[in-house]
Amino acid sequence: MPNRLAQATSPYLLQHADNPVDWWPWEGSAFEEARRRDVPVFLSVGYSACHWCHVMAHESFEDDDTAVYMNEHFVSVKVDREERPDVDAVYMEAVQAATGQGGWPMSVFMTPDGEPFYFGTYFPPEARHGMPSFRQVLEGVHNAWTSRRDEVGEVAGKITRDLATRELTTGDAGTPTEETEALALLQLTRDIDSASGWFKGDTKFPPSMVIEFLLRHHARAGSVAALEMAEGLCGAMARSSLYDQVGGGFHRYVLTPRPGGPLVPHFEKMLYDNALLCRVYAHLWRATGSDLARRVALETADFMVRELRTPEGGFASALDADSDDGSGRHVEGAYYVWTPGQLAAVLGEDDARYAARYFGVTEEGTFEEGSSVLQLPQDAGVADAERIVSIRRRLLAAREERPRPGRDDKIVAAWNGLVIAALAETGALLDRPDLVDRATEAADLLVRIHLDDSARLTRTSKDGHAGTNAGVLEDYADVAEGLLALASVTGEGVWLEFAGFLLDIVLDQFTAEGGALYDTAHDAEPLIRRPQDPTDNATPSGWTAAAGALLSYAAHTGSEAHRNAAEAALGVVKALGPRAPRFIGWGLAVAEALLDGPREIAVVGAPDDEGFRSLRRTALRAGSPGAVLAAGLPDGEEFPLLRDRPLVDGMATAYVCRHFVCDAPTTDPELLARKLGR
Length: 678
Prior knowledge:
48% of the residues lie in helices and 10% in strands. By secondary structure, the chain is α+β, with helices and mostly antiparallel strands.
């Protein structure tokens, strides 16, 4: 019989709706029930594409005996971390503080007041490798609750008090300086493995935001080392199994299972990774003209449109790592791996042998059960390019006949904001207007479904219906970032207006003393701690994303309030950047924009005039960090940058400004390009 999760809209919660565990969603009545029964709350947090979440669900939550014990002794609450990042952040902080590590599924035992006292992540069904079984954990917690309640209360109270005191401020750090950025670059050079191009470490996540910093630092300061590091990282990712060599797009991360062995991906594909990386490779192409960067940017954009776009025009959250291997088994990576025999069945013997050499497919396999993950251990010559295109096309067509990984169809506002920015800029830079159209449609969905009459955002939607969870700081910041990019690309000022609504909410609802920012609004549901984290993880933190969007909006409008808020928020970058640049890459990238101005570019003229189009194209392809563009008729009301910017000699004209103080205007695209250089 389905449990309470059957009414959820989250695909992750719905995956657990038929568990024998009597799950509750995160709501006040769950904690009231725990008080009434005088039992602890068991909180399980995960997300739909999480492999180990599926494993623990199959091993424990689908087990009748385990469920009987859980139902008798606990109130069990299931949370989708993508719907409630605030709940996830607060309790993950406790898990990491107590255990030194974190991850999903996250398992937390707490009092009916929400105070945590025992933590973990995945627990196996039987004890192994020094890890207790999940049943042992349940029994231990139950025994402690019933026989050592005072001790449990003491631990819970101490943890809660410790968490409550962890409020961050930017202090007197001031805004980042040239030295801040240079020291961050120096630290990154110490972390890089020059032989492989990757950062050091066995597990390798895509460092999208760090690469954006490197590209912006090169554009502003002319650093050859920064550009070489960015090219090395992008090349290593694109040639490895992190990148889907057949269908485009990136997996979540890769690791080395044995010393000297090939990199093996964790196969889930997340919308946010692909949005960020699409934009990075488009910007790398802008800086270098690299054919590889162009190909990867477009293939990643096409992957998102082909496999993640929903009927409503938004973009789904993720694809699972697991899928049916054709025999009824649900296996990690089954959709993506190949054997020599499978290549031959699709390509014929001659092309199969070539493809095996090109993509590193071996008889013994580089993954599991003799299968191989495709990568590029060597480059094909120019003469082979057409052959490789044909091979990729045929393999993709054959792969689409396989059982597909599950898709999490919920629309997350923040991640769709990242997609809007990526598709708008990639489409504009690489002459793909269809991608700009897809970005515009996603923006329209967010405005229609996620934004209410007072400009408050809903975190998620599904099937065209808004969810019930309030947007957090990253939603406001990333959606504003996407709308600002779309405004620059399309010349439609309505997107600038909507971004302004969102950023006014940031100023009103998310700010703290001294320039710090909270992850939840002042009027959000209170938790045991108000989450606040400036460090970038898989995506830009809400803090650094807000700083970037506030700075861009100030450049568009001249608003001192927004610029002052951006500068105050960036104090944390000056404090953390030189010591931990890999964890505040987006903040460092925003600091590059601040140090460069950012440039404010106004292009005035008739949209159908070739001179106007040429100036606009030149402005879009300039690499000036964080530059904003307003393009339209002189004195256009939608963009403050266009006001009092007349044509010169009746010709389309470009103005390059900082703080609304402009250089001499020009009608020459080549001169404009020089003005926008270093």
